[in-house]
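EI: anyone free to look at a 237-residue chain?
SC: sure, send it
EI:
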Amino acid sequence: MQLDVLAVLNNERAARRAAIVVTSIDSGKQRLVKAADIGDDPLRRELAEHLRNGKSGMEETAEGRVFLTVYVPAPQLVITGAVHISQALAPIAKLAGYDVTIVDPRTAFASPERFPDVKVIAEWPDKALPPLGVDRYTAFVALTHDPKIDDPALLHALSRDCFYIGALGSRKTHARRIERLKQQGLNEADISRIHAPIGLDIGAVSPAEIAVAIMAQITERLREEPEVERPRGKAAS
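SC: here you go
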């Protein structure tokens, strides 16, 4: 890889930002396209598709034959609530390639014995969450049913660009949650980002089934095809 391209790529990866290296098969010339700049690129449709599925590959384009090498940060799942659903959800998410962190100040629940091989932080969300680097490659799930834990956690997630935010609870529970969040200054657009009741509607009842429904909804959101941005200041062709 060309050194100038590698230097920029390393900076993007360190900041957990996606990027794609475009290599011309004919000339060997390379250029790096940052995720934020895809909408302005002549290959925006091809780049957006490869960024969506996270896979590198060859493309025939107006620029000729190119290889697109995709660099996407590892997805992470942050769960507030060391509950029974979390015990099922954490291993499923790890199998799907997620880095999993569980946050719960209740030390009786947040223990390594209950969550082997999972990062567990027995702290309140306002202390535990800021160092985790919650970003657009983060799925965020609130499962405690305790507003003192879930509400601050959701406020943190909603202030970031998480690709998925979900919260456990019935429609009545969520309606009360909405009122509390509005009192914290959030508007309807902010709150509408929360998937609640959480998970795909598959009739899940047991903690394991609910975990499957949650992971399925996270996957569905992750793989949704993004709208290709129009180049700024130009009409789309």
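EI: Residues 82 and 108 are 9 Å apart (CA to CA).
SC: 👍
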